[in-house]
Design goal:
Number of helices: 16
Strand content: 15-25%
Largest sheet: 9 strands, mixed
Strand order of the largest sheet: 2-6-7-10-1-11-12-13-14
Distance between the termini: 78 Å
Oligomer: single chain
Shape: elongated
Mean pLDDT: 88
Radius of gyration: 31 Å
Helix content: 25-40%
Number of domains: 3
């Protein structure tokens, strides 16, 4: 069977978190919380005689996205009617942009992975449109909720520059991170606030001609995106390998069944009968406004990642995890600043990514809602560095502050959690442990040095985990090798001398 190269392009729809909808004053609400059809009016339900009006904040957010993706913002763009029938599309058409989009010709770099260099994915266009309603299927009936109808969407269309499912996943993740850093969308996949559509084809390796593509619609998780595209690539390779031809069509992905479902033959642009929206004038963008938006852009993920690696000495994988969420990255940087001179940045990263993330995951809350602030985390990490508490105690204090709030130092002082590190106390602990476990001491003297770890564990248990582990180890080793350690039990008879 000949070798084939995947060719993949993406269409990404992200819901913009404006206060009102794209063309009316209805509020943008959380579909998981709001009563169905409680945020709908005559405009977003498409009643006759109504007139849409463009949401300026949605345009601003879309321009932010376009600039972050290095696109050219076009001085004039035009909204168009995209005509098709579906029960959740009340007007019978969707207001979108087609021939004259808001922005075009950009790119996004994917950070290097392993031996691979940076991968540049070209962006064909960025444009605005309105979302549809949402269908619910219950007891053999279909119900429609128009709360989402008219919510502003930014659509990002790539060129077919992706050639593996690994690159696809990394690019999609990187794009989502950019959108979240721009503070224009939460891109919450579980709520459907970002959705992917993949255009998939294959061609013989070493050729440049594009094959017949299929489109996979409405993929709302990275897992679904990767699995669906991998499944379709395998299917197309099987079709061509058997001497068949790939048919251009639209496919759906049944996540529960793990299978592709044919939906309809693939539409071309003429099937939608695009024409300029007669109720909206051309959208003319003031270049000075674009300059102000560009000046207000935050530091973007790629630059922040490189800075975290360069300035804080973080491993690339850790930097990637920290910048995935803008709030997490900001929390980390503030904690580093609060801990300056006390705790190295890589240890702060470990506290955030391991200990704090575990607590946030169990509580099911974002970092912004945690009772533990950057200054508090820096103080807890600092207590370990100064030897005031050991690591298990510090983690217990972090968990208590996370659950109930409070000052870490007051918790340590009030509960007597301070680390036992003075020489007199450690000597007392060591003598007691050696006296209580003479057989283990004997085993150590006979060369079974692994017993030392067991003795350290017994000593830590006696003190409720508060003993300084490094000083305790040194004190135990010294005692075991000294006359005092040997006197903790009768001398072991020396082996007979050979004649």
């Amino acid at each position: 069977m000949p070798s084939y190269e995947p060719v993949i392009g993406l269409e990404v729809h992200a819901e913009l978190q404006t206060e009102s909808k794209m063309f009316c004053g209805c509020p943008v609400v959380d579909l998981t919380q709001a009563e169905p059809n409680s945020a709908a009016c005559e405009i977003c339900t498409g009643l006759p005689g109504t007139l849409p009006a463009i949401n300026a904040r949605a345009v601003e957010y879309a321009i932010r996205v376009a600039l972050a993706l290095h696109c050219t913002v076009n001085p004039t763009s035009v909204f168009a009617r995209k005509n098709y029938f579906y029960p959740d599309l009340p007007k019978g058409f969707q207001i979108s942009q087609f021939e004259m989009p808001l922005a075009s010709e950009g790119w996004l770099d994917v950070p290097p992975r392993g031996d691979a260099g940076r991968l540049r994915i070209r962006i064909r266009r960025v444009h605005l449109e309105e979302d549809t309603g949402k269908l619910f299927h219950r007891d053999g009936h279909s119900l429609v909720d128009f709360n989402r109808s008219g919510v502003p969407l930014v659509e990002i269309v790539t060129e077919p520059d992706l050639h593996s499912v690994d690159d696809l996943k990394v690019f999609a993740s990187q794009l989502r991170t950019v959108l979240r850093h721009l503070d224009v969308t939460s891109a919450d996949m579980e709520k459907g606030l970002i959705r992917f559509e993949a255009n998939v084809s294959i061609r013989p390796s070493g050729t440049s001609t594009l094959g017949t593509r299929t489109e996979i619609k409405n993929l709302n998780s990275f897992r679904a995106l990767v699995t669906a595209v991998a499944t379709e690539l395998t299917r197309q390779q099987g079709v061509l390998g058997a001497g068949g031809r790939v048919t251009q069509e639209t496919l759906g992905w049944d996540d529960a069944a793990g299978a592709l479902v044919p939906q309809r033959s693939k539409e071309e642009a003429h099937d939608y009968r695009y024409f300029p929206e007669p109720d909206l004038p051309p959208l003319v963008i003031d270049p000075a406004w674009v300059d102000r938006i560009r000046a207000g852009l935050p530091e973007l993920p790629e630059a922040r990642r490189d800075r975290f690696i360069r300035d804080y000495g973080l491993a690339p994988a850790r930097a990637d995890l920290l910048i995935e969420d803008r709030s997490v990255a900001g929390f980390f940087e503030e904690a580093v600043a609060q801990a300056a001179g006390r705790v190295p940045p890589d240890k702060i990263a470990n506290w955030v990514l391991v200990d704090l993330f575990a607590l946030l995951h169990d509580a099911g809350i974002p970092i912004e809602r945690a009772r533990v602030g950057p200054d508090t985390l820096a103080d807890i990490a600092g207590l370990v560095e100064t030897g005031d508490v050991n690591l298990p105690t510090a983690r217990a204090v972090l968990a208590e502050v996370f659950d109930r709030g409070g000052d870490p130092r007051q918790i340590v002082a009030g509960r007597g959690l301070g680390q036992v590190a003075d020489e007199a106390s450690l000597t007392r602990i060591v003598r007691s442990v050696l006296a209580e476990h003479p057989s283990q001491v004997a085993a150590y003297r006979q060369g079974k040095t692994a017993v030392l770890e067991w003795l350290i564990g017994q000593a830590m248990k006696r003190e409720g985990g508060r003993a300084n582990p490094h000083r305790l180890r040194a004190s135990l080793e010294q005692a075991l090798q000294s006359a005092e350690g040997r006197d903790a039990l009768p001398e072991t008879p020396a082996p007979p001398k050979s004649r």
